[in-house]
Amino acid sequence: MTEQLPANASMRDIFDFCTRKGIPSVAQGMIELPPPVGLRKLASELTLRDDVHTYRNRFGTEEYLDGLVNLCKSHYGFHEAFTKDNILATHGVTGACVTVLSYLKTLGKNRVGLISPFYTYHVRELEQVFGEEPNVTYIKLKKNPDDSIKTASKHFYLDVEELENTYLKKGLDILMLCNPGNPTTHVYQKKEIDALVHLCGKYDCNLLLDECYCDMVWDGKIYSPVSLSGDQVQDDVIPKHVFIARGFSKNIGCQSWRVGYLIAHKSLIPKLMQIGDPVYICVPFSQMAVGSFLKDDLQDFVKHQDQTQQLMRDNWKVLSRAFKNALGWEPIEPEGSMYGLFLHKQDSDLGAVQSALELGVGVCHMSMFVEHTPENTGMVRIHCGITHEKALQIKDILEKSK
């Protein structure tokens, strides 16, 4: 009998358990793919320079900002009016989110709506900024009434009418969500994003979007509020109530580099810098390598994204079949991010995790992503950001255990 996990086990607890036991884990979303070789060479060359080891420009170095503008215009198709004045360099996506929340707190904004299921670190960020018991209203995603949908959207549907009448009308200062979703894998479509931007503006609510997985859309591309600019640009390409956090921990695998960026209305960037800089001082010098890479080797960046997405799909095909065959779990087809979900029929999510551990693989229980940590959501989550060899190893373990 495998050692029993504690009732409050986190994904890191599961990962540590698997490490002790010497068994593979797909519980913690830690991408195992190295950054592109060209980017790593740029970073190694930078360390030999004498002028990079001091504090950097508080908004971000010119190399980084120029590279981001090239990325956003050439690859993401942002409007021509988008400039580096819309960007603040941050310590990863977390640094961007904390900076925005801290800035809004100075304006007396503290009533937060959090789309549920949610990314667990968003709760930690809210606790860091607003205290141990932040004023959070959880807005639950529902089953989609459209039976023709076969992907994650079938299980995670945003009822826009309910959002307006039940939540926004009664008063929210901040609405926070992840797109593509972690853990849901749901990718919000143009209609949903347009509605979020419109309704938040209508009810004086700030919209904070964590777009960490913006390059990991399994079919098509992400639709972001920056896309709303279209042909009509008034005073800026992004509304003043919208903030977008992005980074490079997942899409190019440099998690420990702590290089991210915040997109906002150009009039707010100096104010946001004054909030974030005293906490984080400056973004590490690795931002310069990322900036040069995005400016001079953008095709290599795009190639890396294509390879990463194909790897995710290939791993999901292998793992979804293997878990279904071994445990009877029903796969939920992902739409984005680096994750995949399964429906299980056990008495609890942790019980389903325990069943996988009995066979020799670590997975994550869905309950930790839902308010009040219910015992049973009927789902578990895995991550697909592993080597294909590891995916095949897990498949073999599950087949032999069965």
UniProtKB/TrEMBL annotation:
SUPFAM superfamilies membership: PLP-dependent transferases (SSF53383)
Presence of keyword Transport: no
Keywords for this protein: Aminotransferase, Pyridoxal phosphate, Transferase
CDD domains documented for this protein: AAT_like (cd00609)
Domain of life: Eukaryota
Keyword Transferase tagged: yes
Pfam families, per database record: Aminotran_1_2
InterPro entries found in the cross-reference section: Aminotransferase_I/II_large (IPR004839), AspAT/PAT-like (IPR050596), PyrdxlP-dep_Trfase (IPR015424), PyrdxlP-dep_Trfase_major (IPR015421), PyrdxlP-dep_Trfase_small (IPR015422)
GO molecular function terms noted in the UniProt entry: pyridoxal phosphate binding; transaminase activity
Domain Aminotransferase class I/classII large intervals: 46-390
Cofactor(s) this protein cannot do without: pyridoxal 5'-phosphate
GO biological process: amino acid metabolic process
Family: Belongs to the class-I pyridoxal-phosphate-dependent aminotransferase family.
Protein name per its UniProtKB record: Aspartate aminotransferase
Organism placement in taxonomy: Eukaryota, Discoba, Heterolobosea, Tetramitia, Eutetramitia
